[in-house]
Design brief:
- The protein is an all-beta fold and 461 residues long.
- Among the domains are: 85 residues, no CATH class; 171 residues, TolB, C-terminal domain (Neuraminidase, 6 Propeller).
- It contains 1 helix and 41 strands.
- Strands 3, 4, 5, 6 and 7 form a 5-stranded antiparallel β-sheet that branches.
- A hairpin with a 4-residue loop joins strand 24 and strand 25.
Length: 461
């Protein structure tokens, strides 16, 4: 992440109280709710993280009231322009859109978990799922393929696809040669569907459980369950775009397994993959890393107790960012370094944020965008599901403390230096000496302002 500068002004001692009050008011919150969903526009189910394209955020969701089969929506990064660009009708068109959508140019590609073919007659929204495309303005919707278990297709796709050239790659929970799930590919024009790998459970696990990660010509992914030797563990795997070179990189033991509900994909940083898994013995999730050749597996950081449900990690260029929430739907955005140090909570979710269960994040510059599911347990009574933004840059706050001034900033900004200057000239900034106090939420420094005006900033070396 680029060096960030956040400045605030303290005037001379005689004007300290007035200037501090004005400055504290100007210090904006970093968390912003962009869209509060209601039952009228899909607030009952937020089914995915977001895809950012052209200043717009795209996602999928649905509600029993108005969108029982699901919908695709978009909203601007400033919260304006919310639009439902496609409403699924069920049946052969598909229902329950799932996973992050892929956007190429002005075209959206995605999957639905149900609909298409092979319906349960007692459930109008049964079926094997579809692969679809639609323009970003909602026009030209078409079904690229109705997945068909009877034809050997993978079926029940629950996670988004990745795009390489003009070919889409994805996973299904079921289907393939052994009905244990598959990795598939299909052209963006709907031709050339092929299962490039069928999971057999005997040697390579079952139920691929996340969006694939593409590095060069190789796909990396996870399964929910391992093979016969480690049936509850889950596995990490890789496979070439042409279906060759499949190998299991790592098999989790029963005491450290990829949590099904976590939707845990892998995040690449150079030749290292990072992910999150759940230790059932301690009810804690842990951040792990492994080299792309399968060597060097290591648990680098254990998250707090109750961290059951975790999203995919996001790389900022200096830290990993992620989300976790507990069984009571109280969740956080956190950061941790790639060596496992520096775990800090950046934001804690509550009723006003839509829910405690945030899904995967997308980073643009210094701003994270994400979705939070509505409360399923009624813990957060105001919960309707939200789209939010979070500026990861810390903000300075200034308050009068008697005749002194107190400058504070979030504890997670432990790697920032507080600097001061009487002017904005960059050459005149100097470090504020002395270790700040840290109460676990905020760091702070208290001092007596001298004559004249002073500016303060946080500088990340």
């Amino acid at each position: 992440m680029k060096t960030n500068y956040i400045s605030a002004l303290v005037a001379n001692a005689a004007l300290t109280a007035a200037i501090l009050l004005a400055t504290a008011t100007a210090s904006a919150q970093t968390f912003t709710t962009l869209k509060n969903f209601s039952s009228a526009d899909g607030g009952i189910g937020i089914n995915s993280g977001l895809t950012l394209s052209g200043g717009m955020l795209y996602g999928v969701g649905g509600s029993p009231a108005n969108f029982p089969a699901g919908m695709i929506y978009k909203v601007s990064t400033n919260g304006s322009g919310f639009t439902v660009i496609h409403q699924f009708t069920g049946g052969s068109e598909g229902s329950f859109p799932a996973g992050r959508v892929v956007i190429s140019g002005n075209t959206i590609y995605g999957v639905t978990y149900q609909g298409g073919t092979n319906f349960n007659l007692n459930n109008q929204f049964g079926g094997d799922g579809i692969i679809y495309r639609v323009s970003t303005d909602g026009s030209d919707f078409s079904v690229l393929r109705r997945l068909d278990a009877t034809a050997g297709d993978g079926y029940k796709p629950e996670f988004g696809m990745v795009l390489s050239g003009s070919t889409l790659y994805g996973t299904t929970l079921q289907g393939g040669d052994f009905d244990r799930g598959a990795v598939f590919k299909i052209s963006t024009n709907g031709t050339g569907y092929q299962n490039i790998h069928s999971f057999d459970y005997a040697t390579d696990g079952t139920q691929p459980q996340a969006e694939l990660t593409l590095i060069g010509n190789t796909l990396f992914g996870t399964t929910a369950f391992g093979n016969f030797a480690a049936p509850n563990g889950g596995e990490l795997f890789k496979i070439g775009l042409d279906g060759t070179g499949f190998s299991v990189l790592y098999t989790f033991t029963n005491l450290f397994s990829v949590q099904i509900e976590a939707m845990n994909g892998l995040t690449a940083v150079g030749n290292t993959l990072y992910g999150v898994g759940l230790d059932y013995a301690t009810s804690k999730s842990s951040v792990y890393r492994i080299n792309t050749n399968g060597s060097g597996f290591q648990i680098i950081s254990q998250l707090p107790s109750g961290s059951w449900f975790c999203g995919v990690l996001t790389w900022t260029g200096s830290e990993l960012l992620g989300t976790w929430s507990d069984e009571l739907e109280t969740g956080v955005i956190f950061q941790v370094k790639t060596n496992g140090t520096g775990y800090r909570v950046l934001e804690t979710f509550g009723s006003a944020d839509g829910s405690g269960t945030a899904i995967d994040l997308v980073l643009a510059g210094t701003v994270l965008y994400g979705t939070a599911r509505p409360s399923q347990l009624g813990v957060h009574t105001n919960s309707t599901g939200t789209v939010f933004s979070f500026d990861v840059r810390p903000r300075l706050a200034i308050a009068a403390a008697g005749a002194s001034a107190k400058v504070s900033w979030p504890s997670y900004a432990y790697n920032y230096q507080l600097e001061q200057s009487p002017t904005l000239a960059s050459a005149s900034w100097t470090n504020v000496l002395g270790a700040p106090l840290d109460d676990g939420t905020n760091q702070s420094t208290t001092f007596s302002p001298g004559p004249g005006n002073w500016l303060f900033r946080l500088h990340k070396p």
